[in-house]
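Show me any protein, fold above all:
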Amino acid sequence: MLPKYRLMVPGPTPLPPAVTMAAVRPIEDERTPEYAAVFRRILDNLKKMFRTENSVLVFTSSMTGAFEGAVQNLLSPGDHVLVAVNGVYGDRWATLCRAFGLRVTEVGAAWGEAVDMREVARTLAEHGDITAAIAVHCETSTGVVNDIEAFGRAAADVLSVVDTASGLGACELRTDDWGIDVVVAGGQKALMTPPGVAFASISENAWRHHAKATLPRFYFDWTQVRATTESALAHTPWTPAITLLSQLDVALGQILEEGLDNVLRRHVVLGRMARAGVRAMGLEVYGTDDDRAGSVTAVRLPRGIDVEALIRSAFVRHGVQFVGGPGALAGHVLRIGHCGYVDAFDVLSALGALELSLCDTGHDLVVGEGVAAALRTFHTSADAV
């Protein structure tokens, strides 16, 4: 018998059955009053997820497309931006900004460590010509969760842009309370939707900067998107991924029915379980090691273990799909995703597969200790958060 497939990567993530079934609905005309009502509901529910009263725009693209759109819509050639870099995705933002002819000052931290937001504030004070500051919320490559509340304070006098790709719906985010101008995310992580749809919340301050920005744009032009989004018959300027939006609508409905606070608490418990299980196997948690880490647990593996072979063994023999570390972390780090449509027993199964696969490599552990530690953590945490 083939093992049941369990997708335990930080994105894309498993889909609830109702979200999967939404994909087989008949295609609708997106410019009808009926579909406009669906689209408006999606926008309203996204605002609840972002915890914002700001405009929310939706794009048919990967999240990287929406990231590029934020740069195009906010900035002009030669503008000076600060980018907080402590992993692959922070580095991608710096590369993206340079591709558009922007001057970039990086505030870095070692991979596996959070960005020091006091250093962000100091750098902004030293460079009075910086227009915007950019930070990643959950740096999926390392499992680090940056302090976005502190980032909002540090960047209060410039445009603040946050990439919350694997944070939205799994990690605490309060866009308005924390004063974040632009927050960009997508559907394929904690929002339990297939890849291909992205969105951004945009403050009035950001709209004022947008009005003056001169970088070229067309597909991602916020002016065009806002005009159709806020029209009487809400729609997108270009044909959207109608099926994906229907799936996103169902997924958002399930999240809000569970209650966003309850969803965030569930992710806290799952993160605790994963970290407890990893430690009980004699492994080191890489990245954030506290309750902020609800999306992904990164694990530093001992020298001598072939990470890719371990991942392949867990998949082929036990049906559990993990992912390694990107870039410089390749061959050293394994990542366990636990965001979105994931429950405690998925985490227990994943830890069991990891234990058995580690045992096959000769790693010294008592099989079952990791699962037992995670189960005890679930028992003591489920009603405590």
Remarks:
- The mean pLDDT is 96.
